[in-house]
Design brief:
alpha+beta, 5-stranded mixed sheet, 9 helices, 16% strand, elongated, binds dinuclear copper ion
Length: 367
């Protein structure tokens, strides 16, 4: 028996009779439409009244918030349409208790199908074009950009300012100057996100991703990792400070001078003891640059991480134990802390001299 046969029979019988369950209703479609329009207006009003967004601190935030509002305004009627028809059908066409029969076979309705394909197609295409225009505008290259290289690793961000010759664990940005972020990762996927700037980009192994934005509000905000990257993911948070341009320049200059004061990482020769505590300064620099402080507390470095043990209160202050704990963190895991959280590649990332300096620094920093 062919599927289509019942339809042929229906046509043979002439126009179908009105379904007895809606026989008493005069204009079911008009009523649904009226309910739908009122519900949509209420829904849109509620959506626009809710304060969805955090403070906006970048030039792109306004455009992005408007785009978000337009998406909400378009989504509410679609949601209401689907729900109105679904609820109406459930109430009106509910099977009577004990009715185990199948419903009548329906072949389809070409007019309805054309409508429900065409309208969503036009909506989605129009929104995609709108989104693309906004994205294109936000990503446009600008004059006098400040380049910041962002590097994610388990579980910290580091920021490098190549033109200023500065490395920092804190993101400091000048007000009203376009910033070109180039985002990389040393290990797994992370996602660089400052909610107040609205823009977010994944840090993908093997790629450099980019975002551009112009901070336009002085203040302190948080850099958040928005991609589950391991047990310390939720601690992968740092600060952004947006400063007036002059203050930023002074900060960058001070940081650059500090950076040159210490021996450049990895290039210090043996016995470079002169220069007033060079090894300790280098050790602290490595501790900061490697992001140890995002997981470990160390009073000497103002670090207060809680993912791993407090490094200012080492149980065993033997240099070879400290070295082993850095290079092979699973060899001996302190009680109360999970195994497998600390990255195991510090032995590759650090040169032997850097490792020495870090071990020495940690041993000197015991409370
Ligand atoms: Cu890095 Cu989550």
């Amino acid at each position: 028996m062919s599927e289509r046969e019942p339809v042929a029979q229906d046509t043979a019988k002439g126009p179908p009779e009105t379904d007895p369950r809606i026989a008493g209703e005069k204009h079911p479609v008009a009523r649904m439409l009226a309910i739908g329009v009122i519900a949509s207006l209420i829904g849109i009003a509620i959506c626009l009244l809710i304060d969805w967004f955090p403070t906006s601190a970048s030039g792109a935030a306004g455009q992005i918030d408007t785009l978000y509002d337009v998406l909400l305004i378009c989504s509410v009627p679609v949601f209401v349409l689907v729900m109105t028809i679904a609820i109406y059908s459930v109430v009106r066409f509910r099977a009577k208790p004990g009715d185990m029969g199948d419903g009548p076979p329906i072949h389809g309705n070409t007019r309805l199908e054309v409508i429900w394909v065409t309208i969503p197609f036009i909506m989605v295409t129009a929104l995609a074009i709108y989104g693309w225009i906004v994205l294109d505008d936000i990503e446009a290259k600008q004059q006098n950009e400040l380049v910041v290289n962002v590097t994610g690793q388990q579980f910290t961000w580091t920021f490098e300012y190549p033109d200023q010759n500065v490395n920092s664990n804190e993101l400091v940005l000048p007000l009203d100057r376009p910033v070109d972020f180039r985002i990389k990762t040393r290990d797994v996927l992370h996602s660089f996100w400052v909610p107040e700037f609205r823009l977010k980009s994944d840090a993908v192994p093997g790629l450099t991703t980019k975002i551009r934005l112009t901070p336009d509000r002085i203040g302190n905000y948080e850099v958040v990792c928005a991609e589950l990257c391991g047990l310390g993911h939720s601690t992968m948070r740092q600060f952004v400070r947006v400063l007036p341009a002059g203050e930023f320049d002074r900060w960058a200059q001070r940081r650059a001078e500090e950076g040159e004061g210490g021996a450049p990482a990895g290039e210090s020769g043996e016995g470079a003891q002169g220069g007033g505590g060079g090894a300790a300064a280098e050790g602290e620099q490595i501790f900061t640059a490697q992001g140890c402080g995002s997981c470990h507390a160390l009073a000497a470095a103002n670090a207060s991480g809680t993912v791993g043990p407090d490094l200012g209160k080492l149980q065993d202050t033997d240099a070879s134990f400290v070295r082993e704990s850095i290079v092979e963190p699973s060899a001996e895991v302190e009680q109360g802390f999970p195994d497998g959280v600390m990255p195991t590649d510090f032995g590759d990332k650090l040169s032997p001299e850097e490792l020495n300096a870090l071990v020495k620094y940690l041993l000197e920093s015991q409370e």
